[in-house]
Amino acid sequence: MKTTCPYCGVGCGVEVKALDAPVSGDRQHPANFGRLCVKGSALGETLMHDGRLLWPQIDGQRVSIDAALDHVAAGFRRIIDQHGPQAVAFYGSGQLLTEDYYTANKLMKGFIGSANIDTNSRLCMASAVVGYKRAFGADAVPCCYDDLEQADVVVLVGSNAAWAHPVAWQRLVQAKAERPEMQLVVIDPRRTASCDLADVHLALQPGSDSALFAGLLNWLAHHAGIDASMLPHLANVEATLAACEAWDVATVAAACQLSEHDIVAFWQLFAAQPRVLTLWCMGINQSQTGSDNNNAILNAHLLSGKIGRAGCGPFSLTGQPNAMGGREVGGLANQLAAHMGFSAAEVDRVARFWRSDRVAQQPGLTAVYLFNAIERGDVKAVWIMGTNPAVSMPEGNRVAHALAKCELVVVSEVSAHSDTAQFADVLLPAQAWGEKNGTVTNSERRISRQRSFIAPAGEAKADWWLLAQVAQRLGFGAAFAWQHPGEIFAEHAALSGFENRGTRAFDISALATITREQYDQLAPVQWPITAASPNGTARLFADRRFYHADGKARLLPPAIPVKTLMTTDYPLLMNTGRIRDQWHTMTRTGNVPRLMQHYDEPFVALNPLDAAAYGLSHGDVTRVQSALGWCSGRVTLDSGLQRGQIFVPMHWTRQFSGQANVDGLVAASCCPDSAQPALKQTAVRLQLL
Ligand code: SF4
To answer: Whose CA is nearest to atom 4 of ligand 1?
Structure first.
């Protein structure tokens, strides 16, 4: 059986030959060609039922699935009737399959009539979405993983791909072994495992990325780095270049705390080589200037013409297996469906397609603001699917408090003991990887099948089925009468092409008539998938036509970098992120003993000189305190961290360590354009325990 890994956005193909045999990489899958990382290769060990949520529960008591669904529908109906549709919300996950996401979005936005459906993808790629839409006119990633092998220069910004996207990294390692002349530039305040392969590491100040790329644009303009053939395809060039004039090398060096020599060397490399691929991740997106950081990167690729060709372009690496699929169906509160927004024409179009007169007319609450609304009592019912916001949201303690006072909390989950499950009035058992059946989309726009190969544990159900059952109980049955996820996928594909005429980047209308058998056999394929490109599309913008009405891409003026202010009380800057062998809040990977061998407990990494200054030694346990809370971890000395900066992994929660998650220390301040929280820069202090 061929299926897809449920962890990161590389989206590796997986083969399962027998239930008692280890899983292996799918040699035919174009994302990984047989490779798997340690998490992917341990997938077979996550299929056990230990800790699984096996039965529906109301207030902790086992009930029948019908009783649980009746209770959910009655609760949502009562609150909608009393307080209106804005008083209810869904909060989803990049772990959901596209068919689950489509159903949730259709129910909430199409029939309940509220756009209060957001997702943990808000914490991951919302800034990239804004960047792409502003630059290209559509949320469209131009590149593909094959570009890793074809680039002359790879620039890795705010990404420790060696740990967070290991198979993409393996491809890069092999490409560099075969072509040592390929240059790798890593731009990251921290010296990470990804720097081991780098020709250049620019250890800039946290939050100064946009200055580096604004300076690059200025450099390109003054050093023959503009591709003149791109200019007819670009808008807002002069104003953007004028705004970048201030970013000369001395100013950039001061903002980034880098040497002028190193900065110019990077800019010269970028300008000189025809095939430059820029990869980025959370260091760019999880920032108060996250959207502008994205546009600063896109500016440089557009002006220099390094886009739409093999081996070059701007390429965001999504964190989750289906963050892209969620974006495609409208899983974010500010999108309607099929990459459409909330203009009157788009609302009307979707309303006619769904045959509903209740379609939401305006964007809903995004993640941070959704939980704030629950805390205020404005949102009185929430259905949380496949995610753990009580610990993964910034100001997690506040989210937990909000859930504790919410009138109706429904949690559909795989894990019986997640930190968020403790707040559920109704627990619905969800199918896990290996049980569920549908599609996901990886970072390169490739749609792949996740296939079921084992029977569901206990009474676990598909998320789309649970949602459709509640939709039917709410009286919307005819619109949710699917019997199989393939029928949902076909409807989703039809909507992507409905009255489209090629005006939307996301178009998979060639799959709108897909049969059950074709869906079962569907091979990995990259969108757009249209009558003109029935086998998918590897790269976008080869024709230099973009999705703004005039066909031109837009340059945007740079952001002013935001500095986190340290105080004498909180003199250190804390960065958070993934480690190699764990996934999110560990509800799956934390149960696999061999995945605990890399790190088996929470740690606090800091520069040895800082440790000495605080009287800390390797192996001590230290408390990390911010203005909002504290957590603790084992001191790890790491000379790759600059003085004054520490790193704490995001994974450990009360469920696995008995202590608070690090996100409880982080303020819920967001990029104003994307509403993505800035999770990378928190002022803290340390204290020996
Ligand atoms: Fe899974 Fe990502 Fe590892 Fe591939 S690289 S096996 S998708 S976790």
So the answer is: 12
pTM (predicted TM-score): 0.97
Q: Could you tell me the fold of the domain covering 57-120+335-498+506-526?
A: Rossmann fold (3.40.50)
| CATH fold label, 126-317 | Dimethylsulfoxide Reductase; domain 2 (3.40.228)
Which of the 8 DSSP states describes residue 248?
-
Question: CATH number of the domain at 2-46, please?
Answer: 2.20.25.90
Distance from the alpha carbon of residue 11 to the mean position of ligand 1, in angstroms: 6
Distance 37 CA to ligand 1 centre (A): 6
Question: Cα separations (Å) of 549 from 322, 415, 545?
Answer: 29, 46, 10
Helix (H) or strand (E) holding 119: strand 117-119
Say which amino acid occupies 360.
Answer: A
Q: Judge if the beta carbon of residue 12 lies within 6 A of ligand 1.
A: yes
Pair of tokens at residue 534: 């029935």
39 close to ligand 1 (CB < 6 Angstrom)? yes
The CB of 166 under 6 Å from ligand 1? The reply is yes
Non-local CB neighbours of 679 within 8 Å, separated by 6+ positions: 123, 282, 286, 394, 576, 650, 663, 666
Say yes or no: CB of residue 396 within 6 Å of ligand 1.
no
Class of domain 572-688: mainly beta
**Residue of 7, 29, 318, 320 best suited for mutating to test ligand 1, as the one with most atoms within 8 Å of CB:** 7
Residues 6+ apart with CB under 8 A from 475: none
What distances in angstroms separate CA 348 from CA 111, 337, 361, 479, 671, one per listed residue?
14, 12, 9, 17, 30
Distance 13 CA to ligand 1 centre (A): 9
6 lines ligand 1 (CB under 6 A): no
User: Can you give the C-alpha Rg of the chain in angstroms?
Assistant: 24
How far is residue 450's CA from residue 442's CA, in Å, rounded to a whole number? 12
What is the rounded CA–CA span in Å between residue 539 and residue 535?
13
- Any idea of the CA torsion for 294, 93, 490, 139, to the nearest 10 degrees? -10
**Please, where in the chain does CATH 2.40.40.20 lie?**
572-688
Q: What are phi and psi of 86, to 5 degrees?
A: -75, -10
Task: Report whether residue 284 contacts ligand 1, using a CB cutoff of 6 Å.
Answer: no
DSSP 173-228: HHHHHH-TT-EEEEE-SS--GGGGG-SEEE-PPTT-HHHHHHHHHHHHHHTT---G
The complex scores an ipTM of 1.00
Residue 602 preceded by cis peptide, ω within 30 = no
How remote is the CA of residue 12 from the centroid of ligand 1, in Å?
6
pLDDT along the chain (689 residues), means of 10: 96 92 95 97 88 96 98 98 98 96 98 97 96 98 98 98 97 98 98 98 96 98 98 98 97 97 98 98 96 98 98 95 89 95 97 98 98 98 96 92 97 94 97 97 98 96 98 96 98 97 94 98 98 97 97 93 84 94 88 91 96 95 95 96 96 79 92 96 91
Dihedral pair phi/psi, residue 205, rounded to 5°: -70, 140
